[in-house]
Structures are given as structure tokens and as C-alpha cells.
Amino acid sequence: MNPELLFALVTFAFVSSITPGPNNLMLMASGANFGFRRTIPHMFGIGLGFTVMVLLVGTGLVQVFDAYPISYTVLKAASVAYLLYLAWKIAHSAPAEAGAPAGTPMTFLQAAAFQWVNPKAWAMALTATTVYTPDRSLNAIVIVAIVFGAINLPSVSTWTVLGQQMARILTNPHRLMLFNWVMAGLLVASLYPVLWPV
Predict the structure, then answer these.
(1) Which helix (H) or strand (E) holds 96?
(2) Among 96, 107, 124, 164, which is most buried by a count of CB atoms within 10 Å?
(3) Which residue from 50, 196, 27 is spatially nearest to 126, judged by alpha carbons?
(4) Is residue 73 within 8 Å of 140, Cβ to Cβ?
(5) In this structure, are residues 8 and 128 in contact, taking their beta carbons and an 8 Å threshold?
(6) Closest by Cα among 167, 193, 7 to 93
(7) Is residue 138 within 8 Å of 59, Cβ to Cβ?
(8) 3-class SS at 101?
(9) DSSP string, 106-123
(10) pTM of the model
(11) Mean of the per-residue pLDDT values for the chain?
């Protein structure tokens, strides 16, 4: 991979990882509701899950979808259903009562598995493996995966920190409830490009 293509890849990886999307919105909500430390498995699940996704998509998984076009429709329906479920969970998150458990953030495995129904993750993986690996060599695919792995974790961590800092002003249960409903609404809004593509 030449330096110009590598620079373009790094730029794409950063911009696509740091901008709002289902992962980042859920991390901000998790940071606000559970704090940074309890959200670490969620962040690592995204980072590793997406890196594995890039490797598998780049090495030929997309050909399976091309061979069976109905699988795109099934994936789309599963993505929409799961994102609506997650939005419902975020909207109904509540501060813990005194002495009660505070709920649980998404686990490492849940976050890693979520990448497979995350429309933004699919768009990023498909773009990265088609645009930045013109020869489709294993070496180029591994480089793309490593670049995303290195850039993704610090990028998504930013959203967790933002949520954690917002928790300082979300001490009132009504403000926290409003925040959770706004995050849920934004997560649902992130489905717009999936349901009504340009």
C-alpha cells in the first residue's frame, strides 16, 4: 500500500470511526449511565468485532451476500429490529435506586456481535475493503483491519468519555431520562439511510 493510499485510509478510518453512528451513540449513553470503566468491555467489543468484520468481509464474505441477494434483505431486517430493540433499552434505562443494581452495560461479546447488524459498520467495512484494497490481497486487507483497529478504539472511547462527563449534569433522574430518550431517538434516526437510501 503506497503512502498516499495509506493516508487516505487513515483519514477515512478516523472520520468514519469518530462520527455519530449506532456504536458511538450507545457508547455515549453507556458512559452516562454506567461510567467509563464499566463501558470498557463494550468499547473493546466494538474495536475487535469491527476489525474481525473487516478481515472477513475483505477475504470474501461479501461474495456470499452477492451469491444470495436475499441475505441483504434479511440482514437489513435484522439490523432494523435489533437497533429498535436497543433504542427501547436505552430509552428505558433508569438510574439505580439506592441499594439496587444499576443495570448492565453491553458486554464484550454483545458489542462484537452487534457489528454484524450495525448498518454503519457494514458500510464502513465494505467501503474500506473495496476502495483501499484495490488488489484485494490478504496483505492489504490485513493493513486495513489493523488501521481500523488502531484508530477505532481511541475514537469510540471519546464518546464514552463524553457520556461520562455528561453524567455530571444528568444527576437529576428527569434529565437522565430525557437524555436516554434523546439517545434512543438518535439511534432510531440513524436508521434513516438504511430504510430510505438515497
Answers:
(1) none
(2) 124
(3) 50
(4) no
(5) no
(6) 167
(7) yes
(8) coil
(9) PPHHHHHHHGGG-HHHHH
(10) 0.78
(11) 83
